[in-house]
TrEMBL record:
SUPFAM superfamilies: P-loop containing nucleoside triphosphate hydrolases. GO terms for biological process: mitochondrial fusion. This is Dynamin family protein. Its main location: membrane. It is found in: Membrane. GO terms for cellular component: membrane. CDD domains: DLP_2. The keyword Nucleotide-binding applies.
Length: 557
């Protein structure tokens, strides 16, 4: 037994590598690049498989994998095809029990996890090989090279453990080898063809894009008087078609009775030789399919590593309660948040906007209210005349009569102004002030009563106080009437602003109450949107990883 440095990759030694095909070399580089990118994400499994696939691609090595049940006779079939008994009648009992046989110099190698590559003489040390390989904890792969068969250094047969093994590690070993298989031969015992496991496994292989050839072995068990063989073959084909499985070929064989009239062993062997002749095409197609499958596995791994974070987000989502929103709908949650934020913004400015609108309406009312007419001007002119220096009435008791006349003329002006204010302003002012709260959904009887109890008194003293010294011209009469109008409107403006402030204060109170209730909804909606963003980010990381790696594969394929 010879101990060599651990190569860690399944394949022939570098001294036996044939001249590399440029396309395969470029594709291998691409696969190595993809594997490195996978490794950077913390994937501890798929990068190794991708590296194996890259090495196989670089060597342009065709692998034909034999899969099936323990009882299907895979090892016997392989020994028969090779013309030499290299495999035991039962597979080597190891958890990494995939045996690779190829052409080349005689050698038997055991690839171990920690002891490097152990090399044996296949003619004299096969029993030692079998004994050593029993320790499934240390063995990864078994490889046998043997000259004189229909295989060369770049074509191999893979004997995998039976898929019906009770040892889960055997099933994992079979699965772990399939990414290196360019063609799969699926062998079945004559009596167990229609087992559901056959259909599931074969369909999975076809879904991966693998060429799959079915071999129904041990047909010597067929009893023709129970069912003619053509009907049996038809039932087999119909069974697989029912599962929507279209194998690339079906062969019926018997190794126990080589002369069996239905034996297609020779046709099967010829098909294997033809497949080896199509090595480059098969490798080119198979490697890309395997790489795509490994990318899918890598993305599933990303999802698994994110499972805890995803579950935490989903638990938060389940615990949330948001009225009127479908929690599972991210778009609806986003729209509800925007609506709530808009409502919050509107609340913050609603009272101020309402105040501005009410002041605008008050100003419009006052601006359009006409308080002085021709009669007012005439009364004002007569009153101002009585205020001129030298104004005098009568000869006897002139002072008393003059004051009486001045008072009479002031009363006439006062009556005219009060009439115009009552008809053209006071009524409309109270009507407007009463309706302001109602426009914003506020009903307040006390406020309404206060508006109608408002009295803006226009007195004789008020009118007299507006007279300026030196008043005597016709132009001044117009100015005086304007001063009267403006002064009265100013009083109404002050009163109106006081009422508007009351309404504004009520609106602020309403807004504060609504904002408090809205704040809780906003918090829930923000958390909901945050959860969906987190879930989307996890999904996006998976999608992005898949698209990026597949794009690299397309470019290098």
């Amino acid at each position: 037994m010879e101990r060599k440095k651990d190569e860690r990759m399944v394949g022939v030694p570098d001294t036996q590598v044939m001249e590399r095909d440029t396309d395969f070399a470029r594709l291998a580089d691409t696969l190595e690049r993809i594997g490195s990118m996978m490794e950077e994400t913390g994937d501890g499994t798929t990068p190794g498989k991708m590296a194996q696939l890259a090495e196989k691609t670089r060597r342009a090595e065709l692998n034909i994998a034999f899969c099936g049940h323990f009882s299907a006779g895979k090892s016997t079939m392989i020994n028969t095809l090779l013309g030499v008994n290299l495999l035991p009648s039962n597979p080597i009992p190891t958890s990494a029990n995939v045996v690779k046989i190829r052409g080349g110099e005689k050698a038997a190698r055991v690839y171990t996890r920690s002891s490097g590559v152990l090399t044996f003489d296949p003619d004299t040390e096969m029993e030692k090989l079998k004994q050593f390989a029993v320790d499934g904890d240390t063995v990864e792969w078994v490889e046998v090279s043997y000259p004189g068969t229909f295989l060369d250094e770049r074509s191999s047969l893979l004997d995998t453990p039976g898929i019906d093994s009770t040892d889960a590690a055997h099933k994992i070993a079979t699965e772990s080898a399939l990414h290196l298989a360019d063609v799969v031969v699926y062998m079945m015992d004559y009596n167990h063809v229609q087992a559901e496991e056959n259909f599931n496994f074969t369909k999975a292989l076809k879904d991966r894009g693998k060429p799959v050839y079915l071999v129904v072995n041990m047909i010597d068990k067929h009893i023709d008087f129970e069912l003619d063989f053509d009907s049996y073959k038809e039932s087999v084909e119909e069974a697989f078609a029912t599962w929507n499985i279209r194998p690339d070929g079906i062969f019926y064989t018997s190794l126990a009775e080589p002369d069996h009239p239905e034996n297609q062993y020779e046709a099967f062997r010829e098909k294997l030789l033809a497949l080896i002749g199509e090595r480059e095409r098969l490798i080119g197609e198979s490697v890309v399919h395997s790489a795509e499958h490994l990318i899918e596995e890598h993305v599933k791994g990303i999802a698994q590593r994110s499972a805890a974070a995803r579950e935490a987000l989903e638990n938060r989502l389940e615990a949330l309660a948001v009225d009127g929103v479908d929690k599972s709908d991210a778009a609806q949650a986003e729209a509800a948040l925007r609506e709530a934020e808009a409502a919050q913004s509107a609340l913050a400015s609603r009272a101020e906007e309402a105040r501005k609108q009410m002041e605008k309406e008050l100003s419009a009312l006052l601006d359009n209210a006409r308080l002085t007419y021709y009669s007012t001007n005439e009364a004002a002119e007569r009153y101002l005349e009585s205020r001129k220096p030298g104004f005098k009435v009568g000869l006897f008791f002139a002072a008393r009569k003059t004051e009486e006349e001045r008072a009479k003329r002031l009363d006439a002006l006062l009556a005219d102004v009060r009439e115009k204010v009552a008809g053209n302003l006071d009524f409309h002012f109270k009507d407007l002030m009463s309706k302001l709260p109602e426009a914003y959904g506020i009903r307040d009887e006390d406020y309404h009563a206060a508006v109608h109890a408002t009295r803006i008194e226009v007195t004789a003293e008020f009118l007299a106080a507006l007279v300026k010294d030196g008043a005597g011209t016709r132009e001044y009469v117009m100015n005086y009437c304007s001063d009267i109008s403006n002064a009265i409107k100013a009083e109404y403006h002050r009163a109106g602003l006081a009422f508007i402030e009351q309404v504004t204060a009520r609106l602020r109170q309403q807004a504060e109450a609504e904002a408090e209730a809205l704040q809780a909804r906003l918090g829930a909606l923000r958390e909901l949107v945050e959860i969906h963003a987190g879930l989307a980010a996890l999904a996006e990381s998976e999608r992005t990883a898949k698209e990026r790696l597949r794009a690299i594969l397309r470019e290098g394929a």
